[in-house]
Design brief:
This is Secreted protein. The chain has about 260 residues and is α+β, with helices and mostly antiparallel strands. Helices cover about 25% and strands about 40% of the residues.
Length: about 260
């Protein structure tokens, strides 16, 4: 009887030991899974696509929505003509150049080189949205036009020409296919599937091939903070408000592109 009791206690100890070891073994299996999770994050996908990483089999832009006829940045495209201190208007000659190029903006603010796999995808998307009515700049070369025009500078004002190009905004997300599996899969998205955080701005062109957009003459009252800021910038590039948004000391007059002598 004594031997029988010992054998029973021995089996009971084995059973208890097995129960203690089971969760430890499970934890050991979970550790490598945690380390491998998230191997391709959205930011890594964007970086790999932007740099044309060797790890990629392919990377493409998937369009989700499109907005035509939006306007690009407000740019000063001529030098500043100074009529400060004068009590009469003056006719001045202005010469300038307006240029456009396709712009690609990832969600982290980076642009993409046109020679990458992704750049080719953007070109193909551009083909999709080009129509007989709306001609767009699909590649990353620059289109421009130069002009010369005489216009009136108001008394005690400075004046210059502003330009904002017309563009088609196609937004969507990146789809990256990796050569080797990560976390059991090869396809990852940035920032996520169905997102609209990646933008491709395709400048719209006239039938002549020159950029389409808004061109306007801006007069700014001398002695105001707006005028002083422009004069102090010494004609360097700086952010400017859009058409009709300059405030009380600013007068904007739009000029039709058909009235501009294009060179």
């Amino acid at each position: 009887m004594t031997n029988t009791g010992r054998r029973g206690n021995h089996r009971s100890k084995k059973k208890r030991i097995t129960l203690v070891l089971a969760p430890i073994a499970a934890l050991g299996m979970a550790v490598p899974l945690m380390y491998s999770a998230g191997a391709a994050t959205p930011n890594e996908v964007a970086t790999d696509c932007r740099t044309d990483s060797d790890k990629l089999e392919n990377c493409e832009f998937v369009d989700v929505q499109v907005k035509r006829d939006s306007l690009g940045p407000n740019e000063r495209v001529t030098s500043v003509s100074d009529n400060c201190g004068s009590t009469t208007a003056a006719t001045k000659s202005f010469s300038g150049t307006a240029s456009v190029t396709r712009t690609i903006q990832l969600e982290d603010g980076f642009t993409v080189d046109g020679s990458t796999k992704l750049g080719n995808s953007f070109f193909e998307i551009g083909v999709k949205f080009a129509t007989q009515e709306i001609n767009i700049k699909r590649d990353d070369t620059t289109s421009s036009f130069s002009f010369t025009r005489s216009d009136t500078v108001q008394p005690d004002h400075i004046a210059f020409f502003m330009w904002s190009h017309k563009r088609t905004d196609v937004s969507g997300f990146l789809k990256a296919t990796y050569k080797e599996e990560q976390d059991g899969q090869k396809v990852f998205f940035s920032p996520s599937e169905g997102a609209t955080a990646v933008h491709v701005f395709y400048p719209q062109l006239l039938q002549s091939g020159t950029p389409d957009g808004r061109l306007w003459l801006r007069n700014v009252k001398c002695g105001t903070p707006q005028a002083n800021g422009i004069i102090n910038s010494e004609n360097s590039a700086r952010a400017e408000p859009g058409f009709g948004q300059g405030g009380d000391n600013v007068t904007d007059v739009e000029v039709s592109l058909s009235d501009v002598s294009v060179q």
